[in-house]
């Protein structure tokens, strides 16, 4: 290998629970690829979600990983859906550089077999909140969830809010691998975010997906998309779910498979982990912020018990510790 060229073969070693940033200079594309294994499994199995709910929450976790991992310093990215479907609430909280927690609220009685993620969500909205710390303003983007899935909502969000041509692919699957006592169930997932960032902004014009309510007969507003972005979109569409989930296919190999004709440059992997940020101190100060009567109402069998909805940690307080008079 020529040390001057900075070119090497793609690593065959798969890296789970990490985000791999990459760049395809020839097409002005940048992106991030993630493969999630044990961290995803921990987030989902802690709650013992029914499989379709686990899959939907897994999709939200992949999307959050792709977006949250772009944050600098101690930022925070929160993805939240509120909808009228069997899964009424999904929340994924990403704290830079690498901590993530998640949960979903669902109505078990409405979980009919065969419902896909879009049907589980129903209609409502998706909110994405970026909090870059106390000195920065908080940003929130909202998109309607209108019978589509999270990939659709992400595309709508980027088209409306960021105006950066963006495509997202998300896949979540269940893996059964042999252990000594028979095959073990594990959740796995993967995803890719691809963005077109040309130096000349006019090249980033996008065709409007929804012409809206233009009067009938009026000429459609036709925007020709840039050839490089057309190529990028057609490449990301060729990724199969199994390639994103496959524990034996490294992210570098997958990127090479897609972009080798144009040349792809990868950056250092960023690890992510399942880790809740709750603590006894945080719960205690939350209790202190409640009205005295609400605190008093929480006393059961002589104690106040608070369970973290994200990680199911249980915090017990005496009425005195909880500030009950
Ligand atoms: Zn917690």
Bound molecules: zinc ion
CATH superfamily of the largest domain: Hsp33 domain
The first-level CATH class name of the largest domain: Alpha Beta
pLDDT averaged over residues: 90
Q: What radius of gyration results from the CA coordinates?
A: 22 Å
Largest sheet: 6 strands, antiparallel
> Shape, please?
globular
List keywords for this structure.
325 residues, 6-stranded mixed β-sheet, 15 strands, 6-stranded antiparallel β-sheet, binds zinc ion
Please describe the topology of this protein.
Elements: E1 18-24, E2 29-36, H1 38-45, H2 51-68, E3 76-83, E4 87-95, E5 99-106, H3 117-121, E6 123-131, E7 139-146, H4 150-162, E8 166-179, E9 182-196, H5 227-237, H6 241-245, H7 251-259, E10 265-266, E11 270-271, E12 273-274, H8 280-288, H9 292-297, E13 299-300, E14 303-307, E15 314-317
Parallel strand pairs: 5-12
Antiparallel strand pairs: 1-2, 1-10, 1-11, 2-9, 3-4, 3-6, 4-5, 6-7, 8-9, 13-14, 14-15
The structure holds zinc ion (ZN).
Zinc ion binds at residues 276, 278, 308, 310-311, 313.
